[in-house]
Amino acid sequence: MNKKFIRLFAAGHLVTDIYQGALPAMLPFLVSEKNLSYAAAAFLIFAANASSSIIQPLFGIYADKISLPWALGTGVLLGGIGIGISGVLENYNMIFALVALSGIGIALYHPEGARLTNKFSGKNKTTAVSQFAAGGNIGFAVGPIITTVILSIWGLKGTLILCIPAIIMGLILLYESKYFSNNEDNLVNEGNSIRREEVVKVDEWGAFSRLTLTLLCRSTVFFGLNTFLALYFVHVLNQSEVHGSIALSTLIVVGAVGTLFSGKLSDKVGNKKIIIIGYSCLAPLLIAFLSIKNPMIVTIILIPLGFFLYMPYSPMIALGQKYLPNHVGLASGVTMGLGVTMGGVVSPILGWISDNYGIHTALCTLIIMPILAVLLARKLPVSNEDIKSKNIACKFTNKNLDLQK
Q1: Calpha distance 106→77 (Å, rounded)
Q2: Which segments constitute the Major facilitator superfamily (MFS) profile domain (predicted)?
Q3: Residue 383 — very low, low, confident or very high, per pLDDT cuts 50/70/90?
């Protein structure tokens, strides 16, 4: 494993996802300062995720054909500048367009970043992917904190300050991009010389489609909470905007821990088991979260809820890459793009429910998703790569037994 590159990709992922985390934290300020409805605020989440959903798989396809290391730096820059400028504008259509531009930038980063992480990960694929994913989770977590502090002091015009991390990291990644290509070429050449007799791997498209549906269930829950959690604390639990952002950050910080934990555990016990465990624990925690009105207890429940919400994430990304070994970029674009951000596309529906029936009712509709995800995950086959690894381990054990005899 090339630890230097893995850490750099994770750091870039962190900065990129700051802007995904920043947008939900901006919503209470946009609602109060620009008099937006819940539906209009939710449509901004839709703008960011719809653009990202469509484009990420396309970038993934190109990443499988040609190396796109410049996409990392460019993606970070667009992601940060789009959000940073949106706060200073008054016209809703312009805000919508810049949020969509930020989504395009984020779409640029994820497929190539995940593909390169896979390429430089060595044998511990899920561990490396979990580090990459955890970087994004941390970005999601610190995004609301940074955004809330800045906006509390300077108002929405303070979003310009959010451009700074993107500019710094974007320039670093653009400078380092030439080394990604050179090292990748060397890695491929070494791999070809070592694996001359390697059997051609087959893509499992049916399994990958089922995995995408499973991931979509998690995405719907995630974006429902990501969009309305801060608003839920403010308008249902009667807490401050700062408390709402702290709650959102709590969910995501704990989620980052869950991501790292599940990545290491998946390399030992298998991706499928971790996915099923995570979803199975998520449903009752959601019910408890929505049944209790004490803000302190609800905040405490967010700790295990966030852990199990994020637990299936990196195993599903790694499993998607194993299902499509010949299209790792496309698999990454779908699992980290379409499969994830499609959950944001349902945000306007939840916004409409919130406007007409209340935020609590809207969040209650999410309970069915982890139940459906468990049913889908149970049908997921073990990947060819996992089967091959088990067979190799068995043969190695048998040889040792023969030698002992």
Answers
A1: 9
A2: 5-385
A3: low
- CB hemisphere CA count around 140 (13 angstroms): 25
Distance CA 36, CA 151 (A): 17
Question: Measured between alpha carbons, how far is 197 from 11 in angstroms, rounded to an integer?
Answer: 36
The whole-number pLDDT of residue 63 equals 67
The rounded distance, in Å, linking the Cα atoms of 92 and 186 is 49
Distance CA 291, CA 305 (A): 14
122: left (phi over 0), alpha (psi -120 to 50) or beta: left
Tokens 């998607």 belong to residue: 320
Q: For residue range 123-168, what is the model confidence (pLDDT) as tens digits? A: 767 778 788 888 887 887 788 888 988 998 998 889 999 999 999 9
CA atoms of 340 and 372, how far apart (whole Å): 16
Half-sphere exposure of 21 (CA within 13 A, CB side): 30
What is the CATH topology of the domain spanning 3-186+202-382? Growth Hormone; Chain: A; (1.20.1250)
Residues 6+ apart with CB under 8 A from 226: 21, 24, 45, 140, 248
Residue 165 CA to residue 10 CA, distance in Å, equals: 14
Which pair of tokens denotes residue 36?
A: 């937006």
What is d(CA 134, CA 212) in angstroms, rounded to the nearest whole number?
20
CB atoms inside a 10 Å sphere around CB 245 = 27
What residue type is 88 in one-letter code?
V
Q: Which of 284, 74, 264 is nearest to 175 (CA)?
A: 74
Segment 258-283 shows an average pLDDT of: 86
pLDDT of residue 389 exceeding 50:
no
